Amino acid sequence: MKNVGDYIVYQKDVCKIVKIMENPFSHVLCYSLVPLRDESLKLSVPVTNQSIRELMSKEDVENLILKIRDIPVITITEGQIENEYKRILSNGTPEDLVAIIKTTYERNQRRIDRNKKTSDKDSRYLELAENYLYYEIATVLEKTFDDAKKYVLERVDSM
After folding, report:
1. Could you tell me if 139 and 7 are in contact, meaning their C-beta atoms sit under 8 angstroms apart?
2. Mean predicted confidence (pLDDT) in 129-140
3. pTM of this prediction?
4. CA–CA distance from 96 to each of 21, 83, 101, 123, 144 (Å)?
5. Which residues of 22-45 are buried (b: 16+ CB within 10 A; e: fewer)?
6. Mean local confidence (pLDDT), 104-130
């Protein structure tokens, strides 16, 4: 069991545990969580909830960075891409988030290169995946969101 002040990932969002209490109705032990992306939210989640996972370790972050170039982009027809983004996003593993980031970035870059407008759909999923991934990395490395993103991109560019 975690402690007050610890960070966890709940449904892909990094959350801080602000309280541990028993739910007065169900008598189940719960974490009171505040997501880092939106500190105005307060969530009450049973400590045994299957959607809770540990943050990556610093070693996990470094290993992920080393694998980024090898993580493939998503190749699927235009009509199925949003369903594929949703399916992959529901898994929410860091590698899955990287696949979405790489795919959406490349798709939007191809549009820009052809003097076309970027896709709202791709931009939306890019933002979601980046938020999930970089908030976790920022928390693990004790950096800001922007510094974590910059750190990862610089490391990948230097490889």
Report:
1. yes
2. 94
3. 0.86
4. 33, 14, 9, 16, 22
5. eeeeeeeebbbbbbbeeeeeeeeb
6. 89
